[in-house]
Queue: 3 jobs
Job 1
Amino acid sequence: MHQRRTSTGDVLRDAAEVLVEVSADGLAVLDDAGYFAGLNHSAAALLGAAADDLVGKPAPFSPNPRPDRVRHTATWTAPGGRAQDLEYRIEPLPAGGHAVWFRDVTTVRRQQRRLTAIARAASRVAESYSLPVTLEAVAQEIVRTANIAAVQILSVEDPSAELRILGMAGFGAAPDFVARLAACRRRGAHVRFLDAFLSGETVVDLHRKPLIMSDPVWAPLKEIMDRPDWDAFVSMPMSVRGRKVGVINAYYRPGEDPGPGSLAFLEAMGDQAAVAIDMAALLAQARSQAQSDERRRLARDLHDSVVQQLFSMRMQAKALRRGLDRIDVDGVRRAAEELAELSAGALADLRLLVFELRPLELAEHGLVDAIRAHAASLRARTGLAIEVRAPEDVRISGGLDFQEDLYRITSEALHNVVKHANATAVEISIAREDVDLVVQVRDDGSVAGTSPDRPGESLGLLSMRERTERWGGRFEAGPCAGRGWVVRAAVPILNGEPL
């Protein structure tokens, strides 16, 4: 019996050793210090190294995990640099140390993160009215998938013209990226994402970074491109309703090859970005058309009715005054002169209103010239000293909606000065401060006269704040040091465009 029991025990031990070795899951023994003391073949394969090379090395598993959980997770970086997510169970051994069972759940967890990112991106597209804010969020979601170090979402209309970055993550602050890229193109750099856009096919370059960093034609961009830790590059064209709108560029961490699952994820995120671009274009077109139609109608109605009538009144008053000169009726003459002055003032006011409804200077000459024209008109009408300061190199190339909001903020601030401030001078400044475009209106009037608590001003201040925050900006209004009041709107811009 004893011999049989001994033979049975040997058989069981041998069977256990075989089961350990043939198990598809990783099985390992840790010593009391948390170092690998032994591993089966599957464990070594999962960790990407030979078992002998791992013995004596620190394990990623905590010997004291949270007691309220049976399964735990750890991160392991394989010798090739690939990051892995491991799910494990750990139990103490009677003689000391711990036994660990684990498996690689990287693919499953990444797929879960990708699906979550796609859902969040879709929610952003549906909820946000700001294209830059939406696509910046989409870019951040892509980077959060862990195997992608950086990403760019670019709008491409004409490959030979200047490109526009709508979303970027992983590079840090790079407001001059487009300008540097243009310099590289002038040097003859081969821009792979233009290949993707022109061909309509995804471009995959597994070792792109070493080529860029060793090629002198990329010198203007090397500092920015070296910030994220990446190796492989993927550029995927974005299309919507049969029209190519741009590309999405992904920069993969070393050891992370862009496999089918990752490419499918990029395609889904690119679809969300393309939908956002298309929606923004349609909304802007509809909004611009509606505003333009309404302004044209109002301007036409005012011109055809009130302005013409007032012009006739003025001409009749002048004729009456000339006729009265012959009979010298002083009282009637004074009344006629007053009528002429009133009608002239009304005509000037209505012409200004027509300009306000349809500021042609804004569409034809841009924001700065439109503000100068408005300031000149207001200066002539009120006698208020208004100075407009704007550097010659200040660049504002955003759409008419963006420029019009800044124009309305300025005109509303000037309206408040005339109505409430009792001021003699106003200074309007338009300038770049870091990544912000700052428009500021400062007067020398009385602080009490421009308090935001005044009923006449509260709606105007609210309108100015809403126009600023619509573009992700910051609005401030308050008293200056000593005397006067200042209104300040700061909007982040990149290459002249609102972010």
Note: Residues 1-5, 448-457 have pLDDT under 50 and may be disordered.
Job 2
Amino acid sequence: MVDLHHHLIFGVDDGSPDLETSVAMVQMAAEDGVTHLVATPHANEQFAYDRAAHAQRLQQIRNALPSAIATQIELGLGSDFHLDYDNTVDIGNINKQFAINDGPYLLIELSDTGIPARIDEVLYKMRVVGLVPILTHPERNSTLQRSRGRLREWMKADMLVQVTANSLTGHFGKLAERVAWELMEKQWVHFVSSDAHDLSRRTPRLSAAYEVVRKRMGEDTAERLFLTNPLAVFEGRAMPSQPDPTGVFEEEKKGWLDSLIEHFR
């Protein structure tokens, strides 16, 4: 499995507090079947993002891993990029310093309670500069929990979606679980990640969610969301073809058909 969202780097945000914990988190992930893991420190008003410093700490983690674990798992670097004012005021000049492994893919994060007024402009400018936004845990945002209309519009503009493994298993409550599964069943989800922060409450384990998805939606879906899609992102490759998302493009198709019928009347 491949985990694209993990607060692994110690002492830089609300994730791992020290090197020992970071090493233990990698070991827990590897023992759970994770072969590729992206460290994604927060980039927001509370936690400043310093790519060079984060890369240095990530290398410390690599160096501290037991050799048996180091050979089982590959570590990468990205960010959990919050769409706050400071981060987005000059979004047209954002380069790939926040992206996963210096590739085109960027994890973007909303607050749990709202949506920025400028988000459509921000998403457009990201695509103009060559970034592919991946929205993290929409199932935990209260606005998107009430209505999926905005999410549908962003997906029409090629935004990708990641849900949290623990949402699928009920860890974040019944509402987040229900919304996450609705998105899954509509084929609106491209990745399932851990959003790991620690060793006890928000852990790096993905296998429980993988098994639930496998039983409910089949092996092919589980493999696509936990391995094939996230591996393409980790390696900076184009995404493979995806199932048609239910309810995203139907309105456009209906309008086209109506126009065709009208033309031949």
Note: The domain at 2-263 is CATH 3.20.20.140 (TIM Barrel).
Job 3
Amino acid sequence: MASQHSPQQPHPILARAEALAGAGRSDEAVLLIRQLAAQRDPDGLFALGRMLWGGGLIAVDPVAAREQFALAAQAGHRAARVLTTNLMASGIAGPRDWPTALTRLASEIAIDPRRKAQIDLLGRMALTTGGNPEKLRDGERLSTAPDVVRFPGFCTAAECAYLLDVGGRGYRAAEIRDGRGGTRRDPIRDSDEFTIHWLIEDPVIHAINRRIAAVADSDADRGEAMQLLRYRPGQQYRAHYDYNPMLENQRSLTALIYLNHDYKGGETAFVKTGLKVKGRKGDLLLFRNTLPDGAVDPMSEHAGQPIASGTKFIASRWIHEGKFVP
């Protein structure tokens, strides 16, 4: 059954569930949503999928969430169809089926007009049947301590423009957890960010992530979600390590794609060596945060220097030693 309710007119049962949750009656809210989903109502299935994905009222279960999204898509929920295709392409929280995901894109243009641009970009990429790059550009090693490699022209101008379009107006101030269940402004970076989280990691983004994994001699499932970062005049990322001593599955590599170069300042500076890098549009900078024994490489301390004029945009991805489970 196709959904009869627009985003502006939510299903009345969902509206009731939201009111109950707001009044602190979470168990009743969840029960209503589960009952609606059990009736194979597309809105109910989608709402249950979102709860299972994001948590809050119930425990997070990405695998079950993906199953609910697929059921909602089968029942006619348009947004659920797009999310299901994205997860099918990436293999997050379930089986990966790249060929089937690609065949679904054309039928989703009416739901998400960006699908047309994705089809066009994917058609220009030299990809294997599994979505991996058929060939890679050679890298230029800029440093051995820390290990820093630049890949000129890693992304095309069209791919950079697409990533910028994905960020759009969705940037927000960079924040960190405050230790009390909330967030606060990051004290060492004052940039703005947009996370391309797993549900919106479309096939184009995933193909780029697989290309990053290939040049990093890694696997795509070791990477965190890609982040888009925006630095305006005066903004910076002060000296820091991407290595995090609290992690068992360490961030061993950092990948940065420069999405533009029409700004002044903003160099990526390795503070202990004096190496400064300002990439051209489409360049990828890849550097290692760890030593062979897995300990932090003290020479990997780096900073994004202040912007003097213009606006800097980069795409960032942290790559872990092992599979990163969202």
Note: The first helix runs from residue 12 to 22.
